[in-house]
Amino acid sequence: MYTNKILILSFLTIFLLHNLPSSAQPVSANKKVALVSFSVNKDIDCSEVKGLFGLITDIKKIRQDSLFDLQPTLNKFHKTFYSSYMSKFPFELLPEESVLQNPEYISFESPNRENRHMSENKFWWTFLTPPGYKRIYEGGAFKKKNRNEIKLLRMFDEADGIMFVDMSYSFTNDSGINLVKFYRVKATVNIVLLNKEGKKVLRITEYGMSSQKISFYSGIALEPLQLLPLCQSASDKVLKDLNRKLPRLVKKVNKKL
Q1: Torsion angle defined by CA atoms of residues 76, 78, 84 and 88, in that order, rounded to the nearest 10 degrees
Q2: pLDDT below 70 — which residues of the chain?
Q3: Strands 32-45 and 92-93
Q4: Rounded CA gap, 185 and 188, in Å?
Q5: Measured between alpha carbons, how far is 63 from 125 in angstroms, rounded to an integer?
Q6: Cα Rg for the chain, rounded, in angstroms?
Q7: Of 13, 24, 61, 150, which has the maximum CB count within 10 A?
């Protein structure tokens, strides 16, 4: 009788675990990922805006203006990632401090030297990162053994993969009346996951459009406070949409790690 009860309980446990929703299933204890790059790009891609060459100059000035403050957007992105997105991944992220306090990570400089702005040329640097993080590109060298991802994987032997996360902005053509064209700002979030061999096993690219529109006029400079609300609106939209879609997008990635 006692044995029968044990068998019934075991069967019920297996059945319930198998039928849990993906967000509630236990995380695989042997799959761990190091988040090695996290950034927001203050530059705005103007390639869809034709004929206004002064706009690129305006953007270069705006991204250095203290009024164009995307630090709260970065903070929100970082907080959302850890408080909302992390629980939706079917793997564990290594503790943040174990990545950021790793001596090799602290001293790491890729062949492209993305982070040299700290001491050399802040005018051209457009990336914001949370404290301790670096902005690191995948790749960075022709030979595989010299690529950023291979060096980073060696640093975090306990990890089954590494992740790169960024947000960037662009103008996108929305509508127009006669010669006046209207544009929205598009925020793009990229999440890239590589396995221990340096192979890409996941790439998520999600977009969000600003609720507001803007038009440009030759000879009238774009101001930081005109642009900032559009970037904030687009960022809020993409973060909300990604939170909803993420469980479906990452559902089978553990099999590739």
Answers
A1: 150
A2: 1-29, 51-53, 111-125, 140-143, 176-179, 218-219
A3: parallel
A4: 10
A5: 9
A6: 22
A7: 150
Half-sphere exposure of 15 (CA within 13 A, CB side): 6
Q: At what angle do helices 71-80 and 224-249 cross, to 10 degrees?
A: 10
pLDDT at 52: 67
- How far is residue 40's CA from residue 133's CA, in Å, rounded to a whole number? 12
Q: Is 117 exposed, middle or buried (0-12, 13-18, 19+ CB in 10 A)?
A: middle
Residue 180: the pLDDT is 72
Per-residue tokens: 92: 């564990």
**Is the separation of the CB atoms in 222 and 59 below 8 Å?**
yes
Structure tokens at 67: 């009024």
